[in-house]
Amino acid sequence: xxxxxxxxxxxxxxxxxxxxxxxxxxxxxxxxxxxxxxxxxxxxxxxxxxxxxxxxxxxxxxxxxxxxxxxxxxxxxxxxxxxxxxxxxxxxxxxxxxxxxxxxxxxxxxxxxxxxxxxxxxxxxxxxxxxxxxxxxxxxxxxxxxxxxxxxxxxx
Length: 156
Known about the structure:
7 helices, 46% helix, 156 residues, globular, 4 strands, 4-stranded parallel beta sheet
């Protein structure tokens, strides 16, 4: 199971980042969840069983604290030689479209809990392959998009 745990950018950039991870997991039949998409669930009409939205805001730590908790759990798991909890960050330009690396780290460990992040994870061929799926899934819901439109233009 793969969890995207760190966001990069705001709406469009996060959607782009999500699309590449989700396309890779979909193509390889790996369960995928985006922990940082909770604030856009209503806009896209998507409900995830693993969502920070289910945690009351008073108990939800800020972004950096959430990242630190996950990263420190990973370090702790490594120290205890726990091998079913992994974390991978794709932040180097060399990571872009590196299918061999993704297969080695994610596909070969598909039976483990894997937390991923990074702006440089890219699978453009798979994003194109699943474009109709993404178009349908991530087209904003009309009632929410109308609300956003009115909100933006009332402020101008």
